[in-house]
Amino acid sequence: MSEGDIRLEGLVKRYGDVLAVDGIDLHVPAGEFFTMLGPSGCGKTTTLRMIAGFERPDEGEILLDGSDMSSTPPHKRRVNTVFQNYALFTHKTVAENVGFGLRYQKVSKDETNRRVRAVMEMVQISELGERRTSELSGGQQQRVALARALVLEAPVLLLDEPLGALDARLRLDLQVELKRIQEQLEVTFIYVTHDQDEALTMSDRVAVMKDGKIEQCDVPQKLYEEPSTAFVANFLGSANLLSVEARAAGAGCDVILGSFTLKSESSPEQAGTGTAMIRPEYVKLEPHGSEGENRIPGMVEEVVYMGFHQDVRVRLANGDLIRADVPNDGDSPEYEQGNAVAVHLRAANLRVLDDYPDELADKPAGDADIAAL
Amino acid sequence: MSTTSLRNPWGKPRWLVGITWVYILWSLLPVLLAIRFAFNSGRSRTSLQGWSTKWFFGDNSFSVFGDPTLQDALTHSLVLAGLAMLIATPLGIMLAIGLQRWRGRGSGPANIVALLPLVTPELVFAVGLFLLFTTAMTTIGLGTTAQVIGHVTFSMSFVVVIVRGRLITIGPDVEEAAADLGAPPLAVIWRVLLPLLAPAVAASLLIVFALSIDDFVVSQYLASGADTTTVPMRIYAQARAAPTPALNALATLMLAFTLIALGLAYAIFRFFSRGEKGGSAIEQIASIDSGGGR
Q1: How far apart, in whole angstroms, are the C-alpha atoms of residue A80 and residue A147?
Q2: Which of A54, A140, A311, B280 is 20 to 30 A from A347 (CA-CA)?
Q3: How many CB pairs under 8 A join A and B?
């Protein structure tokens, strides 16, 4: 069995009366790029800090390759951390920073030099060895922080929003590079971020967290296409949320929206009063009068030009407002306010969610149904 | 034209510049005068009588290096300041680290108590110590030991302020990073925290030295006799009896020691914090020094 298998069992952390982490169960197999995604205050960083050993869980166990390490101090844990603000040792050179941890591993001088050189080469900072860390750019500092953690060859690497302080262009580059390094070393990465793009592009699996709990945990594609709750649907991309009545119908559901009955491929177990979700890019606008299942007549209420697409808001015949992304690909028609259209909500993309979001309950039906980020 | 500068908001604030310079000159004038009389060739401390260094090195028994009482005072002051510096700085660093990490019940009051000597009137503090050493802790009694304890006690608060300022700048992350990379707790302090604290340590050492060397009230109250007389005490006593320009010479030497100490503090601070952005700690030192002219 390769090393780096992390298992969290019933992990709880309280700060006074605040429940920061509320019973997390999680299994990250060795070599996985696993991301914890969520808004600030959702408990993702606290969970990471408990794995690193900086915080003590109030309840639960943290198992690395099967043995509990929740009472092992951080300096004895075989996990290393890349900090959000890098936390470099400003009184040391880049090479000294990278080699810092090796001193405590009883590694010979030659071996230390060899490993420091190798890891600096891997993260492309070979020529910076004698520089002071304060002379480096943000991206370079991030690479030093990464090298310093990687050089110890721990089976698990924890990354706490490592790209958070960098500009967008650099972030993209480093995302690709992090993924490359992770695949090359086959190390388990546990990555914390609030950036949905980072989560989707790099991860093997993503756990979306909310209020100290895991809301949904799955591969990125599943999370995006089949979110189980409105929170997940909204956090990853944007979503149209509709108050509906769902009824079991064969292998799927019938979704009752006002006087219209639509098909959905969601499991019949989702039947009941609830919320249906469809992503704006899956909402297809067809010429007025188009026939077929899952089509509802509507009228364009507003068009917002967004560059690569148009954001078209359509008032459906039942009174709900729905948002459609119409690509600016040269083929799609340009819509104007007042156009009559048929809105096609495909059964495969119309998902019945587990929850009934509070914000929908509080507001009058109609305009409240758009919850776009 | 001052009126144009008043009307023109982009013009240089000449008035403010002028007032600043007047203030600087006014505050330096007495010091410069005192130094000038240290080099007076006559006996007078009020009328100028040519230049001489005889009050420093003269072979008469009135010069700093001729009068054994002045020499003893200088030696005693330096010994006191040295001891205070070497004791207060490590204690203050430990206290600062402890206070910084202490969260929860009791940490608030402890923080206030640790900084109390900064605002306590020195006379109250000195009288309190005097009573303590003459009634409760008579085994120590008055004398050099009591003076060192007194100086250490009040100057430790300054060390705490300087070191904590630096600790806040450093932040908790580097300590966590070091532990994460495998450094045991003591190694975290020795290899990461103390090197990063170096500028604050240097500043603390020399601030304590400067504070101790020009302290009068505490030294006076805890003194036990002639052999525990410090330079400020000597100057005060002799100024009332038979003052000569040798007192000015002694004061000039004291000023030189203090300035050298502060200059060193600044240079060492700059050396250790080179390449870092911002100067929050150096500003703190400046503010402490100006506030510390007890």
Answers
A1: 11
A2: A311
A3: 75
Q: Which fold has domain A228-371?
A: OB fold (Dihydrolipoamide Acetyltransferase, E2P) (2.40.50)
| Residues of the domain holding B255 | 60-291
Tens digits of pLDDT across chain A (373 residues): 578 999 999 999 999 889 999 999 999 999 999 999 999 989 999 999 999 999 999 999 999 999 999 889 999 999 999 998 899 998 889 999 999 999 999 889 999 999 999 999 998 999 998 888 888 988 899 999 999 999 999 999 999 999 988 888 888 888 999 999 999 999 999 999 999 989 999 999 999 999 999 999 999 999 999 999 989 998 988 899 998 888 888 888 899 998 899 999 888 888 888 889 999 999 999 998 888 889 999 999 999 988 888 899 999 998 899 999 999 888 888 888 999 999 999 999 999 998 754 544 444 444 434 444 3
Chain A residues in contact with B182 (beta carbon < 8 A): 75-76, 101, 103-105, 152
Q: How far is residue A125's CA from residue A138's CA, in Å, rounded to a whole number? A: 13
CB contact under 8 A, B180 and A73: no
CB nearest B173 (choices: A79, A85, A132): A85
A89/B192 CB distance under 8 A? yes
Domain assignment present for B20: no
Q: What span, in angstroms and rounded, lies between the C-alpha atoms of B127 and B130?
A: 5
Contact B171 A52 (CB under 8 A): no
Q: Global pTM?
A: 0.78
**DSSP β-ladder status, A18-28 and A156-160:** unpaired
Nearest beta carbon to residue A105 from set B182, B188, B198 = B182
Length, in residues, of chain B = 294
- The interface pTM score, or ipTM, of the predicted complex is 0.82
CA B135 to chain centre: 29
